[in-house]
Design a protein that fits this description.
This protein is α/β, with parallel strands linked by helices. Helices cover 36% and strands 18% of the residues. It contains 11 helices and 9 strands. The longest helix is centred in the N-terminal third of the chain and has 14 residues. The radius of gyration is 18 Å and the shape is globular.
Length: 253
């Protein structure tokens, strides 16, 4: 599957991967900053954004998609930054095709199987009647019954768009994401990745916690860590200047 992507800037390639329910547009501020130093390749993962929809989802398939993209762009190697689900996709690529990766950065996710973190999100999204929906504000009001945080609702509703018939639709393949949520929650698999890798954690997030350190080191024995204070699960959006500085220091050293 050839994924939707955008290229910004020039220099050494740097692929950026979003998380569940996200799109490449979530990385707008970082794309602007990092493209001053690298050729940034922002990607929509399968069943997200403007990439093709499929009834099959797994980290192995996501890694296959990334290999297809890297070949399509005639790249020998590339830096990769992956957040959350995109971080697991990046890990899967590293564990199965390490020769394609120059430097790897994983943002606020561990190589473990997570529980059902998104039941309320799915409940809220499925409660929105797209056929009768008149406005985004109406969608937000409906979603608020399941998702309290306004910032999270705004993030989710970026997936909402009007088609050529002015009908509201989701850019993401919501049905498939729900059907294959167990695969999305699963851990990546493969051989040990023996090169250095940087894990970035939001201090207030519970996605990358000390209990997962052993799992991280089993797959990535040369893992290093940076913690961004006062940030949660989206440190690249919550603390953009500090995040950019960490990325540049790591990639340019």
């Amino acid at each position: 599957m050839l994924l939707n992507f955008q290229i910004h800037g020039e220099g050494q390639p740097l692929i950026i991967l979003h998380g569940l329910f996200g799109t490449l547009e979530n990385w707008g501020a970082q794309i602007k900053s990092l493209s001053e130093h690298f050729q940034v390749i922002a990607v929509d993962l399968r069943n997200h954004g403007r990439s093709p929809h499929s009834d099959e989802i797994s980290y192995q398939l996501m890694a296959d998609d990334l290999r297809t993209l890297i070949s399509h762009l005639n790249l020998d190697t590339t830096h990769i930054i992956g957040h959350s689900m995109g971080g697991k996709a990046a890990m899967q690529l590293a564990l199965t095709s390490p020769e394609l990766i120059d430097k790897l950065i994983i943002v606020d996710i561990a190589p473990v199987s997570y529980g059902a973190h998104h039941n309320d999100v799915f409940e809220g999204l499925f409660s929105i009647n797209l056929n009768a929906l008149k406005s985004r504000s109406e969608a937000d009001q409906t979603l608020a019954n399941s998702v309290a945080e306004p910032g999270v609702r705004a993030f989710l509703l970026k997936n909402l768009y009007r088609d050529e018939n002015k009908q509201f639709n989701w850019r993401m393949n919501l049905q498939s994401l729900h059907k294959h949520y167990a695969e999305i929650s699963a851990a990546p698999s493969g051989q040990t990745y023996t090169d250095p890798v940087l894990f970035i954690k939001g201090a207030k997030s519970d996605y990358l916690i000390p209990e997962y350190r052993e799992s991280v080191l089993n797959f990535f024995p040369r893992a290093d860590y940076k913690v961004i204070k006062e940030a949660g699960h989206w440190p690249h959006a919550e603390k953009p200047a500090e995040f950019t500085q960490i990325i540049l220091q790591y990639l340019e050293r």
